[in-house]
Design goal:
Two copies of one chain form a homodimer. Chain A has about 250 residues and is of the alpha+beta class. The first copy, chain A, folds into two domains: about 160 residues, Nucleoside Triphosphate Pyrophosphohydrolase; about 70 residues, Winged helix-like DNA-binding domain superfamily/Winged helix DNA-binding domain (Arc Repressor Mutant, subunit A, Orthogonal Bundle). Helix content of chain A is about 30%, strand content about 30%. Chain A contains six helices and ten strands. In chain A, the strands form two sheets. In chain A, strands 1, 2, 3, 4, 5, 6 and 7 form a seven-stranded mixed β-sheet that branches. The first copy, chain A, has a three-stranded antiparallel β-sheet with strand order 8-10-9. In chain A, a hairpin with a 4-residue loop joins β1 and β2. The radius of gyration of chain A is 20 Å and the shape is elongated. Chain A starts with 5 loop residues before the first strand and ends in a 9-residue tail after the last helix. Chains A and B meet through β1 and β5 of A and β1 and β5 of B. Chain A binds a DNA duplex (30 and 30 nucleotides) through α5.
DNA sequence: ACACAATGTGTAATATGTACACGAACCTTG
DNA sequence: CAAGGTTCGTGTACATATTACACATTGTGT
């Protein structure tokens, strides 16, 4: 049984990425604080999905818990990208108000551990509407109002993602179980902000023996149907020479 | 002015690497706890260099402070490799004794942020002897007695180092300002536990325009003297195409 | 002057990266 | 049912990078 007694000065924040076959998106929570008397909106902006850890849970468990609550999914790809303990994390006046409100003066400075989560959009669509949580294109984040240092944390996560995606086959976490090569290419282009030549991209993928063509083809599309592919982690683990770069 | 009031449940631990032109070493602190009455040694093993953070300092500052105290050096390469908050970090009986002793029952579980530090051995040799701190070859760590989860943290740091060294020019942090290509090769071999062909290694380095030959040569060696080289971060920043891999 | 020890260099075969254009398959529309 | 629209899937020539492999050079020490 979990106590739910929080550790006041330690939190986790999750930067959850998703891909809609067009662009990369991030899951953000709408934050709203109303004046208790007149209902006037004091704060309205966005935060990452995060919360204090509980006294009897690991950092990883805390992040899993938050993601489960948000998406209903277990077994999401989840990896730390850093710990942040700047003294001025809560510096804007509005954040101070909020901080007082939720933190009840427990701690001056909260150290937060940032988690990068990658999820397959096709497996989660529903449970989001009933909460104040939604997807935002990563390209729009720069113009958004965000709480605390969450915009900074977001960019830290994005950088970590871009670094890792070149070296480990984690991009597949953002795709459904089977996918076309064009989808894979669009994903890498969205992740890295570049564009690739189709033939060269496919030549590269052909060397990755863990991206395996299926018999299945696309159906009901108004053009030549594409073949579906599969990412096999087993084959990846067995065949990697430590040399493969996912940079195209 | 720093208050020196500690945050009881947050610490940093530094895994400090050095290179002696032969092998990779790590800086460890000897830990000894004696019985207050009869002087009997209760614990004798090794820990990473770490301590609680202070209430009015950042995580990075705490790590810098610890390293400064240990080596007398500022401006050391320092990078987080992870945050660790397992509930059983202090599980062995001896560690519990120690924990009670230094922590005075303040907190049940300490979250520690791991820092990877790379230092140029030639700049620090002195100040270590007067403390219970010394260098150990990384290859011997597996057989050492270590406190808490510090052996685990060490291996986490080593893995992070091996990953990063392939992708960023951080190995140079372990070398003096100028160095020979043989030294550079030995370093990479020590870091990655492999060995390279001399000619191919040098061909690879020749592509790295930020490794610049000096006029200077070795002196007083009983063989053909080697040329010295320099790592230029400026040239690196300017000329990197995002493609260079430090994997040889 | 000779032995010793580490430095510094080239070539050929293979693999990888890059630039670039068009027919094929399926759906939609008139 | 023919024509048009859209995305899929493919090959070649050139430049660059990787790999495997052996010996003369330059200094010191005796």
């Amino acid at each position: 049984m979990i106590s739910h007694k929080i550790v006041p000065n330690i939190s986790v924040d999750c930067v959850v990425f998703g891909f809609d076959f067009e662009k990369l998106n991030v899951l953000l929570v709408e934050r709203e604080l109303k004046d208790e008397k007149n209902g006037e909106i004091l704060i309205s902006d966005h935060t990452l999905a995060g919360y204090h850890i509980f006294e009897d849970e690991d950092l990883d468990s805390a992040a899993s818990r938050i993601l489960k609550g948000l998406t209903g999914l277990d077994n999401i790809f989840l990896e730390q990208f850093g710990a942040y303990g700047q003294l001025d994390r809560v510096s804007a006046p509005k954040d101070k108000v909020w901080f007082e409100h939720i933190n009840k003066g427990f701690a001056d400075r909260v150290v937060t551990v940032g988690y990068l989560a990658l999820i397959d959009n096709t497996k989660v669509t529903l449970r989001l509407k009933d909460r104040n949580v939604s997807w935002f294109p990563v390209t729009t984040v720069s113009e958004m109002e965000m709480a605390f240092d969450h915009k900074f944390l977001f960019y830290e996560a994005l950088q970590a993602l871009q670094r890792k995606v070149k070296v480990e086959p984690i991009a597949f976490e953002l795709l459904p179980d089977y996918f076309t090569l064009s989808q894979l290419q669009k994903l890498y282009e969205a992740l890295l902000g570049t564009s690739f030549d189709k033939r060269n991209f496919r030549k590269k993928v052909a060397q990755m023996h863990y991206v395996i063509p299926l018999k299945k083809k696309q159906q009901g599309v108004a053009h030549k149907p594409a073949q579906y592919y599969l990412f096999s982690r087993e084959v990846y683990e067995k065949t990697r020479k430590g040399r493969i770069s996912f940079i195209i």
